[in-house]
Amino acid sequence: MRNILIIDDEEKLRNLLTKIISYEGFKVIQASSCKTALKSLEQFEVDVVICDVKLPDGNGVELSKMIKNTYPLVEIILLTAYGNIPDGVQAIKNGAFDYITKGDDNNKIIPLLYRAIEKVELAKRVQHLERQLDKQYSFDSIIGKSKLIQNAIDLARKVAESEATVLLTGETGTGKEVFAQAIHQASSRRSRNFVAVNCSAISRELLESEFFGHTAGAFSGAIKEHKGLFFEANNGTIFLDEIGELALDLQAKLLRVIENGEFFKVGESKPTKANVRIIAASNRDLQKEIETGNFREDLFYRIAAFQINLPALRERVIDIEMFANHFMQIFSAKANKKVFKISDECINALKRHQWKGNIRELRNVMERFVILAESSELTADLLPLEIQRTSKSFSKNKPISTFELASAEKIHIQKVLNYANGNKTKTAELLGIALTTLYRKLSEYNIN
After folding, report:
1. Are 234 and 200 in contact (CB under 8 A)?
2. CATH fold label, 3-133
3. Predicted structure pTM score
4. Which pLDDT tens digit goes with each residue over 182-216?
5. Measured distance CA(207)–CA(215) in Å, rounded
6. Are strands 262-263 and 272-273 parallel, antiparallel or unpaired?
């Protein structure tokens, strides 16, 4: 039931309005002054306020401003015995929904009240969706307790508050878009658009038009004007996934956007301004791409103003069980199955797998897993053969103890390899060993 607060010092008018409004199924609360009205607003969840302009201890026009500042979703209808244009204008400026003259209110109040209620309901739905969005894309929604992922989250939280361009690096499937969404949602741009584009998924010929838009007739097939993704992301954030796939000429145009905040639509000579925060991502070693002439060095230093590396899933084994249970719940609900548990044998097998596709691969495995499940527990025999074979091979061999020298060497090589973004030549140089020795040890420790 919707709550309506009537504020008027005339008791007869309050009672009349209460009677009329109550017939419509609303709950009515009465107040005779600004002071009692503010107390009522503290005690009840009020949706609409109907308020007289002249009150014993204040002015309804000014009171409406106070109410909107404290309760922004509440709509206010002001009543006055002698309507005048300045008061009406000020009332609307202060956030009042409408301003009507007494005497006309009996016929107008109910339709006006319903329109105000519609606005309140819409505002509440929007607020609910925004809260869901904040929850879905917040840093708190990122799964993982490992030190590596927590360090990445801490860095992302800090940079989110700034306007800095961010470069997210890491293997495919490590959650780069999830991080980009969380950075946007924690920034001052959260109420604006977040536009994600996979640079490798659009042909080179169309990418410039997709980025910056085009005018009608700019090229064959350009029947009408196209705004472009940077225009759509204006005052918001654009996420450029796989930025290493961009052609050099488009890299130069992207550099102009970063440096000058403007771009040219295809077929137009006048620049368009854009206030866009760029978050880029790549699974390539961009510095190596610079050496081979495939990526502009000046663009790299602009997009890598703040760089965050996302760890591979095999580096955060402690998080695999959390992910597995999370995906099990999602897919069992979608499939309408009552799957509640993953066997210990199965968890151990998942932990031993290398996960070259990272979180995305694990998600796919868990979806298949749940589809095949015939009981409330997921068992290892339902796992893909590749994972089963890895697990059996592992169990036949003596596991390396974390206290053994070999184990320490394996961990160290893995860390240096990750630091070098998978560049084996650079890894060998950092370790001070020959490249052939590195390849032998990678094979020995089953490091990919």
Report:
1. no
2. Rossmann fold (3.40.50)
3. 0.66
4. 999 999 999 899 999 999 988 887 898 999 999 88
5. 15
6. antiparallel
